[in-house]
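Entry 14. Ran structure prediction on the chain below.
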Amino acid sequence: MTSGCSGAAPHPIKMMIVRSYLTKYSLQLFVETGTYLGDMLDYVSKSGANCTSIELSQDLYEAAGRRFGRHKNITLIQGDSGKKLPKLIAEIKEPTLFWLDGHYSSGITASAAADTPVSVELNVILSHPVKQHVILIDDVRCFCGENGYPHLEELLLAVRADGYYRAEVSVDIIRLTPMGGLA
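Output, structure tokens:
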């Protein structure tokens, strides 16, 4: 399997990568799954984008509420992103940057029926009528067909079959960008 990275990339590098896609594609909406401590959300929100983050853990959601309570461009949602994302995306009418990082990773993170809802999340986004989203999926090294993760090759086949996105794998991130040029 080619994963583009044998280990986790440093988080500051990932934050810069995410924000660079927001800028490159002139996107004003950011949706992340997996708030965790809120560092990605904090960094991206400083760009001025309207940000929404979905967090499964009640404790992490409450901590994010305390951290971001006064930020007018941040909306927090508590629950399973595989179940919350369909309702959220139904309200989206413009290209959005999606950062899919909602998964169980031990410690203080929460677990649902599967360790990751990434397959459900991706299917919801790919079936959305807007076909100009940018979809960044973290932790590509985990896409080995175990613990709810699809095999990387299967995921890439699904994206190719969809036909609206090109795929690149680099720095532990699957990067799906629109075929019909936003940039």
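The chain is about 35% helix and 20% strand. Will compare against last week's run tomorrow.
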